[in-house]
Amino acid sequence: MLDLQELDLQLDQVAHKRKSLPEHKTLAELAAEKSVVDRELVSADTEVSDLQREQKKADSDVEQVRQRKARNQQRLDSGQVTSPKDLENLQHEIGSLDRRISDLEDAELEVMEKLEAAEAVQADLRARAEAFAGRQAELEATRDGALKELDEQRAELGDKRAAVAAELPDALVTLYQRLREHNGGIGAAPLVGKRCMGCRMELAPSDLTRFKAAAPDAVLRCEECGRILVRTSESAV
Question: The whole model's pTM is what?
């Protein structure tokens, strides 16, 4: 019975280690940080995409006005326009187009500067996201390796436990398991001297007298905590 209890304690320890691996906490913290960066990266991607469209439009607007100016300049240089008034209007329009091109180029430059800044932020966030992903992969590999080792220990202990439990009466194992559930994982404890090592309480003289008279295969219970008591060479009975 004590062998079964010891194996169950070892299995409990393995289960605790599986749950409390430091990689679990680190991965959770990393995932929280990464989610923030991922959201910021989505916003940055959207901003860059919007600015790229805005830049294309600005480039197109500038090109359209330049082409119009070029056509007007060609008409002016070709001598096709002979009317003084038409020449004046054409020259006036070319001047207006020059000013329009200047304004559009300023706007185009402003968009380019915004795009450059947005792309820098995007690149930084992407690098951080990739670093998080790399760190996450490393931690997951370490965690998985530790879990595999613990699972192997659990399987080995489980086999040993099954073998030990098979040698005990089913009713006794059932009682022991129920006591484990209600006593913090300790269903059976040795009797050392006059003391139950489950609750650390000394047994009353009447209980000791009763235990001395009990059959070797009798199931003894601590009157204080209810755990199964196992007599050993260190017991005072």
Answer: 0.72
